Amino acid sequence: MVGGWWHSHDLTRDTVRMLPFAPGINPCRWVRQDPKRAWPLWAAEALGLPNDGSVTSESLAAAYAIHSSGLPTKPVRTGESSTAESRYHQRLARWIDRDGSVARLSGRLAHRSWWLFHNLVAHPLLALAAIRWTIALHDWTSRRLNRDESQGPSPAPRIERRFWWLVHNLAAHPAIGFVPCATTFRWHDVSARRMRVPSWA
Which of 30, 64, 37 is nearest to 152 (CA)? Predict the structure, then answer.
């Protein structure tokens, strides 16, 4: 979208009649972004949204569609699903939501296997070389772990703060892999924010 704006003090009664061709325009050009692209952290923070790189135009549109549909939804605390710890428990619940103790134990063990593979293999390989096949491996283990084959491919990461990228993928992910607890999840979330790689929280 191409257009512009004026300060009120730049316009007179005569020039107002000339809009949008009045002199003194401050031009602006808006370019539509990929709806899957993560919002900048400052924009999410300013609007009181999760600042973990998970906010996209697509996710907000989906949330609005569900809200405006009038369908009953479970009450969700602000930011509940924006932390690694809450996502872990939500994901685990999908694996153990079965009848019978043996089935639940089987689901828990399967979740644990994919959890370890994703955090101890896929993420460290990403840290060392964020290339096509390591990204594909990450996405494959993520789909299995989340039990969601509809997940699309991850974008190639734009790494500007390599130190934090390495800390996040070589230290924080193995930490939550081995010891998924409040402390390691908090460390994961902090390192995810500090590496500032959109869509890779």
Answer: 37
